[in-house]
Inverse folding.
């Protein structure tokens, strides 16, 4: 049998085999027990943090990643930017009837590699199979738990007028790579998704007392993070176009397709807000890491405007509006 | 706007409103912060347990419950049967474009009531919107964490020859209620889903030293739990048809539709395996609870056969086979 059938989801023999042969074998670790209702987590000390994310990306595989690596990195990264060390993931897979078993196996293997890279274990899982035409191959949900680093309480509440904004690398790569992977565009290019763990980037800044807040820009891209900061703090945000790293092929392809990379998802970048006097130190630390070599101080918070403003390369100002309708293909 | 649109999932203004006005308002509690990447869980003492379940039931609402209450109870129950006190849930919603906002609001309210009934809080959540024709209205995934009760280590490894099997109430109600709720059958009846928390049932037995293992029979019904026990222990399982509680309308409807209630899902029942000498005490405790008033000792494990055997009402024997193909409508 080379395709997923409804019988793989009915609680019987085929489901047991799918879980044992594909999921448990590939993701196996001492905590995962495919036969238990709940997993026991070896004692975790300290304050726990929990996060959850659903993944519905199309296509399931794209240059630089797939829905499996994305589902691991996305949830790991939400814990990392919150100042926690990621420990365990729970995995839910909603599989559409007709999915190639070989593709599912590739995706689960990719998930196992991403978990290893990120230092997390899959503690428990669940699979459901939905009829053809009621899914898009595979939807994944990952829930992560981790332990908050001692004394670290990052929050948008801590952001003050004059804080600096840093981004850890070029924005829009993931969104562009996924669009290119869709046949509908009939295009190709050398853009790879940036999907990766940001644990090392986050850990590099955690002992800086002026670190206010970190977030990984995913859905809605960099601009949505800037709006979240604006709305939560009441402060304006001003960023400089020339300081925002965007790869040339991303800019070129976005121009052709009519998208703005400032709104396109990243899956391996961090936006950090940090007190002005520690911004340079933070930048030095990021630039010393392979994943932060293209990091940049892109702007600051300010009480002098009440918008999110882009200072353009030509010397003008442009208001970056919040995403409202559906200007972008769905890419997460 | 009365329907979910793709823009409700793009990371922008409509998504923020959906999360704030529907999810955060209804499910709100001190732990849930709709603006944070990860939730902080107030210090939990003891050994943690974690479980995850995806929910794809059709229709979304049915007599006795809906996908929202099911998603809470299902995950709470997996922790309860494992001997843990459920504490927090993470919620992931994959919403299909076109879903009625009013229906979504009803389901989220139902989820809030179920969480209150079960003593758990929704700690964090995520929403995604998929295009029309790539979902079936709403898929939910809930991940639960809880604290294992001191000294309680339930496991199929503990099961021995001659242990008794108990079921806490009639089987097959949920599966039958969901089938009846589907227009395709053109039937109606007074069968309600049994979807409910089993926390009280589980707690009632936890101090019995002879308690080996508990499981809530969901997908694949009672028979699948019996097969899991058989496969994990190598012991045979023998149950008596006359001892297995099944409601008359469930039996009648299953006869008409050609289904076997022994394979139909429950969502508020427990199967317990307990040492022979404590089985009567367990039954007394269950029968004292409203949710256990119809509980019954249905059979035992045995090293005299190597199958799952049903002693029929007519004095014969029937082998209960493991579910193999897809004999049942999908109901979880």
């Amino acid at each position: 049998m080379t395709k997923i059938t409804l019988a793989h989801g009915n609680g019987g023999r085929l489901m047991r085999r799918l879980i044992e042969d594909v999921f448990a074998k590939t993701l196996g670790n001492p905590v995962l027990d495919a036969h238990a209702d709940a997993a026991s987590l070896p004692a975790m000390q300290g304050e726990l943090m929990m996060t959850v994310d659903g993944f519905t990306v199309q296509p399931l595989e794209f240059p630089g990643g797939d829905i499996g690596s994305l589902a691991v990195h996305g949830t790991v990264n939400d814990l990392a930017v919150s100042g926690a060390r990621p420990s365990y993931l729970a995995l839910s897979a909603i599989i559409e009837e007709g999915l190639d078993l070989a593709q599912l196996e590739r995706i689960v293997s990719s998930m196992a590699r991403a978990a290893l890279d990120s230092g997390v274990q899959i503690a428990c899982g669940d699979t459901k199979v939905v009829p053809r035409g009621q899914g898009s191959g595979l939807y994944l949900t990952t829930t992560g738990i981790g332990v908050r680093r001692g004394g670290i309480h990052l929050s948008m509440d801590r952001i003050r007028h004059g804080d600096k904004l840093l981004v850890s690398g070029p924005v829009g790569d993931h969104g562009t790579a996924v669009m290119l992977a869709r046949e509908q565009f009939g295009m190709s290019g050398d853009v790879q998704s940036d999907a990766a763990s940001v644990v090392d980037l986050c850990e590099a800044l955690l002992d800086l007392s002026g670190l206010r807040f970190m977030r990984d820009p995913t859905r809605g891209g960099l601009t949505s993070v800037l709006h979240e900061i604006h709305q939560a703090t009441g402060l304006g945000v001003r960023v400089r176009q020339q300081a925002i790293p965007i790869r040339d092929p991303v800019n070129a392809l976005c121009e052709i397709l009519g998208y703005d990379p400032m709104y396109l998802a990243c899956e391996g970048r961090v936006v950090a807000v940090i007190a002005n006097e520690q911004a340079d130190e933070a930048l030095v630390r990021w630039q010393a890491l392979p994943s932060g070599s293209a990091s940049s101080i892109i702007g600051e918070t300010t009480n002098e405007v009440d918008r999110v403003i882009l200072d353009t390369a030509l010397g003008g100002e442009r208001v970056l509006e919040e995403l409202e309708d559906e200007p972008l293909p769905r890419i997460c």
